[in-house]
Write a structure and sequence with these properties.
With about 250 residues, the protein is α+β, with helices and mostly antiparallel strands. It has one domain: Transferase(Phosphotransferase) domain 1 (Transferase(Phosphotransferase), domain 1), CATH 1.10.510. Strands 1-2-5-4 form a 4-stranded antiparallel sheet, with helices on one face. The chain has a 4-stranded mixed sheet with strand order 3-9-8-6. Strand 4 and strand 5 form a beta hairpin. It is globular and about 50 Å long.
Amino acid sequence: MQRHSKVEIKKDTVIKTASPELMRVEVEKTRRAHKIAEDCGLFRVPEVLDYDEVRGIAVFERLNGIVPICDAVSWGEEYNMVADKLGKTLAIIHRKLILPSDMIVHLPTSLQFSGNEVFLHGDYNGSNVSVDIKNNKLVILDWQMTARHGGRATYGTRYFDVIWFINYMLWLPTIKYLFSNPVNKVAQQFLTSYFHEAQNNYNAEQFDAYVNNFFAVKKESRKINANWRTRYLLPRCQKLTEKFLKSLTPQNY
């Protein structure tokens, strides 16, 4: 996987360097998302403090006291409650985030789906979604498309962002995955909350088709990208994924 940026963390700031083209888009997305977050009050987004457009360097506010959701929240009722906020937050982002027309870059062909297009977060996962422990709010970071899929897309089916978070949970192997299924209940809560808040008519057939295609694309790449720590747990994670896929239809979110 080719990374598209360099990050330097300081006491009160985070300095990020990328190609001017990519940074221009990320800065604009972050600024607009910061305003959306302030208006709705449900989550936080770091403020852009400084930006060198020519060199592709942005200085972001460092939000102290935040912990990635993967470390801050335990599986069980706690995660189920957070999943409700996660779904609402993503739906608000999809409903309100609008970028200039010259920043529209479509998803890679293998991940596209006709209809339900929105401007995307692009890497909505358990590392970029954190919890502000003091204020008990979600914090959404890193508004650049995941480098695993090119790092450039800004626009496409809402289903990509939705399933990217669930994909993160299904393919984050831990020992607990060997003995239980911690994902499905959280995933169902997340989906229910998302589609309710999005005010978007859920089409089970379309969503099922997209998700099945998504995981077919990801299955082989996961084998390639697995490391010594995760490789031996991949079969278990694949079984959990298959169980999740079976749970989609005829569920009506």
